[in-house]
TrEMBL record, chains A, B, C, D:
Pfam families: Citrate_synt. The keyword DNA-binding does not apply. GO terms for cellular component: cytosol. Its EC number is 2.3.3.16. One of its GO terms (biological process) is carbohydrate metabolic process. It comes from Immundisolibacter cernigliae. One of its GO terms (molecular function) is lyase activity. Belongs to the citrate synthase family. This is citrate synthase (unknown stereospecificity). InterPro entries: Citrate_synth-like_lrg_a-sub, Citrate_synth-like_sm_a-sub, Citrate_synthase, Citrate_synthase_sf. Pathway: Carbohydrate metabolism; tricarboxylic acid cycle; isocitrate from oxaloacetate: step 1/2. It is an enzyme of class 2 (transferase). Keywords: Lyase, Transferase. Gene3D superfamilies: Citrate Synthase, domain 1, Cytochrome P450-Terp, domain 2.
C-alpha cells in the first residue's frame, strides 16, 4: 500500500496549550461564545449555522429527546440496574435501539424526498409513484404512520411550522406534503406524516446529508436517556419493568407441566 | 412482591394527540420554544434552567465535544468501517469509552469538591488532606494533570471564567482552586487542574448531581462522534488507522520465526 | 516518548498464507482439531487446558448461558425490534448488562475467596470476619443470595460436584463453603451460595484471574442472547414486552389530569 | 390490542428450585453433561446437535475467534483503557464491529448459496449469473477475496475438509465451489473463497438459518476479545495504538499553521 495517501482529518488539532476545532480556537472562540447547538452543527457540518438553522436543529433535537418508556429507555434502565458501574454502558445500550425501525426512519423518509425532488417528471408524479410502489410491495413507508399518534402525529405540523417561520425555501417540505396527499389517495385512508418524516424534510431543507440524519436522533436521545438514568437512580423502576416483562411472556415448553 | 409499589416516572406521558415532558406540552411549549440545552437540562433536572445555568451547561458541552483522534473517535471510525449498516453502533462503540479514566474523572473530581465543602475543619485543611492522601497512596487525582496539555490545561481558566461571569456563587470553584494550591505544595511541583476538574466545579455550582455528570460528557461526545462519522463517510481514515495500529504492536511470539 | 517500548502481543500473527494463534497454526493445529472450549481457554490463558479444566469451563459456560427473560434478554429483544439491521448491536445491548449487579458478582466472590486463602489466621477466621464485615456494613455479599432460587440455588452443588469429580485440589471450594457456614451463623439465617459464588470458586481452582472471570459470563451469555435473537425473529415478543413495561410504570406527573 | 396473543418463549423456564432450558433440566441434564458447543447449538436451534454438527460448529468457532489487531480488538483495547470499570463495555465495543463489512459477509455468502440451490436452471447457471451480476455492478462478492490472505485464504480448504470428513451431504459446499469457478472465469483472475464463504457453506449444510449466522461470529469473537482484555490488562498496548492512530491521521486544516 505504498501509494496510499495518508488519511486526513479536518476536525481537530491541538498543541500543548491550544485546541482547535474546525480551525477555531476552542478556548478563545468557542467555549462561552457559542451554544451546544451551534457547536454541534459546526462540528458535524464544518460551518457555523445561520440563526434559522439553529432554530430548526433545536426543534429537531427537542422533538426527539424523549418519548416515555420506549425500548431505548427500557434497555438503558435495565442495563443500569444490572451494571451500575457504567453510566455510559447504560446509555449506549439504549442508543443501540436508535435504528431502522423507529427513529432511523428519518433516513428512509429523506431518501424518498430526495427521490421526488430529483424526479424528471416532477414531484407530484413521483409522489404518486412512491405511494403506489410501497402499497403494491406492502413495505412500510418511512416517515408515515404511528402506532400511538392517530389519526395525526401532533409534532409534525409544529416542526414544519418552525422551519417555515425560520424562512427555509420549503421545497423539501412541499415534496413531503405532496407525498402525504398521494399516500392518502393511493391507500384510500389517511396515514399521518409522523415526526421523523417532518424531521427528514426540515433537515433536508438545511442540507444535512441523509447518512448522518440518524445521528441527530442519537445525540438528543443520549440526553433523553441520561434523564432516565437520573430518575432510575433516584426512583428505580427497572425491577418492576423486569417483572412485568417476565410475566408478559409465557413459556410455551413443557418443562413446568412435568415439574410437580 | 404483593406489597411493592408500582414504579413511577415523572418524565413523560402521552395520549394519542399530545406528548408531555415534565408536564409541559412538547408541541405547544417546547418544540420551537426552547433550545436543546434548555430541553436537556429540563429533561434531566426536572426544572427549566436559568440563563446562567444555560451559559454554564453550554460551556461544558462545547468543551467536551471534541478532542481529535481520541480512543472514542478511533473506536467509532473502526466500527463504522466494519459495520456501516449501523451508525448508532459506531457511535455507541465510541461512547463506551467515556469512562472512568478520561472524561469520567469529572465524577471523582466532584466527589473531592464535595468532600472539601463538607469538611468540618474547612476547605483549606481538607484540600491539604486530600492532596496528602493521594500523594501517599500514589492514586491519580481526578481532575488534575493532563498528558497533552502541560503545564496548564488551557480550557480550565475559560470554563471557570464563564461560570464566574454567569454569576455563580463560586464556593465549589474556590474549593477546586484551593485543592489546586494544596496539590502544587504537597507534590512540590505544578499539576494543572484539567478541564474535567473545572467542569466538576461548575456543574457542582449549579446543582448537577455527581452521579449524572458523566452523562454530560456522553451527550456532547455523541455529537462529536457524529462529526467523526460524517468525516469518515466522506474521507475514510479507518483503514489507515487500522494499519498504523497493526504496525504499532509487535508480535512477541515465535511463530513467524519458524515461518520460512 | 522516545524511551517507550513498542507494545507487544503474544496472541496472534499472520502471513499471507498462515495464521498463528499463541504460536500454533490455526489451520494445521487448531481448526478441526480442538473444541471451542479448548480454543477459548487457549486464547485467553495462553496454554491448552487439561481435560479437567475443559470439564469445569464447560460447566461454567453451560450454567451461565441462559436464564429466561432477563434484563439482558429484554435489552437484546427490544434493540433487535428497533434496529433489526444490526444483530451485533442487539447482542451488545444485552451484554452491557453483564455487570456488577448480577453475573459480575463472580468477581467480588472470587476476591473474597482470595482474601480468605491469603489470611494469616486461616480460612475459618477470615470467613467469620468477612461475614461480620458485610453484615455490619449492610453491603451485599457477592456470590450469596438469589432473588428467585430460595432457599437454595440448585446450580451450586452441581457446579461444585463437577469440579470435584474433575479432580481439582478443592481449597477454593472449601473456602467458599466455609464462608457459607459463617454467613449462616453470622446472619442467623440461611443464605444460599449462588451460582456465581460457585463459579468464582471453581474458576479460581483452575487459575482464572479474577479480572477476567466476568468475561466467561460475557462469552456464554452472547450465545444465550443469539438464541433470543433467533426466537425473536421467528416469534416476536418485543412489542408485548414493551407494552407490559409501559403499563408497569405509572406517570406521576400532572399532565394527563389536565388533558381532557 | 385486546385480541393480541400473549407472546411466548420456548427457551427457558424456572421455579425456585429448578431451571429448564429447552425443556431439559439445567442442573440434572446439562451442567457437567454437555459441552459449550452442544449447549450453544441446543440454545439456538432448539435441538441437540449430532456429533458431525458439533465438529462443524467447533471448526467455525475456532476459525473466527481471533485474527490479531483487528478493528474489533482495537476498539476493545482502547475502550478498556478509557473505561476499565466495564469489561463488558470493552467487549461490547469490539463486538459492534462484527458487522456487514468483514465477519458479517457470511450472511451475504449464505444468501448466494441459497440462491444457487433454489435456481430452476441449476447451480452452474446460477453461479455464472451471480458472478456476472456482481462483476457488472461492481459490488463486492460476499465470501470472496481477502485483503491479507492472497492468493488463497488458507482457512477455506480446512473448514470444508472438516465438514466433508464429518459426513455432510455437501450440496451447499458444491454450490460454493461452483461459484468459485464461475468467479475465476468471469473475473478473468483468481479470487479466493475466503473463510466467511466457507463458513456460510458449512453452516448452511447443517441448517443454520442465514439470519443468525453472524451470531456465531459474535459469540466466538467475544471469546477472542476477552483474550485481548486479559493481555491488555497484563501488557497494555492501547496507549501505543492510540499514539500510532493519532500520528497516522494528518490534520488538513489551517489552525496549526497559524499557531506560532
Amino acid at each position: 500500500m505504498a501509494d496510499q495517501r495518508k488519511p486526513t482529518t479536518a476536525i481537530c488539532a491541538y498543541t500543548s496549550d491550544a485546541i482547535y476545532v474546525r480551525d477555531k480556537s476552542l478556548v478563545d472562540e468557542l467555549i462561552g461564545e457559542i451554544t451546544f447547538t451551534q457547536m454541534m452543527f459546526f462540528q458535524i457540518m464544518g460551518r457555523m449555522p445561520s440563526p434559522a438553522e439553529v432554530k430548526i436543529v433545536d426543534a429537531v433535537l427537542v422533538t426527539l429527546m424523549e418519548h416515555g418508556i420506549t425500548p431505548s429507555a427500557i434497555a438503558t434502565r435495565l442495563t443500569l440496574m444490572s451494571a451500575p458501574e457504567s453510566l455510559q454502558g447504560a446509555v449506549a445500550a439504549g442508543l443501540l435501539g436508535v435504528g431502522g425501525q423507529f427513529l432511523g426512519t428519518m433516513q428512509g423518509a429523506a431518501e424518498l424526498i430526495a427521490e421526488m425532488m430529483a424526479a424528471e417528471d416532477g414531484v407530484p408524479a413521483a409522489a404518486e409513484r412512491i405511494a403506489r410502489r410501497h402499497r403494491a410491495s406492502k413495505t412500510a413507508l418511512p416517515g408515515f404512520g404511528h402506532n400511538l399518534h392517530r389519526p395525526d402525529d401532533p409534532r409534525t405540523p409544529k416542526i414544519l411550522a418552525v422551519a417555515t417561520a425560520a424562512g427555509v425555501q420549503g421545497k423539501h417540505i412541499a415534496a413531503l406534503l405532496a407525498l402525504g396527499e398521494a399516500v392518502d389517495r393511493v391507500y384510500e385512508r389517511h396515514i399521518t406524516i409522523n415526526a421523523t418524516g417532518a424531521i427528514a424534510a426540515v433537515l433536508s431543507e438545511i442540507g444535512i446529508p441523509v447518512e448522518v440524519m440518524r445521528g441527530f436522533a442519537v445525540i438528543t436521545r443520549a440526553a433523553g436517556l441520561v434523564g432516565h438514568v437520573k430518575e432510575e437512580l433516584e426512583n428505580p423502576a427497572a425491577r418492576g419493568i423486569w417483572d412485568a416483562a417476565t410475566h408478559a411472556v409465557e413459556y410455551s415448553g413443557n418443562a413446568l407441566k412435568n415439574h410437580a
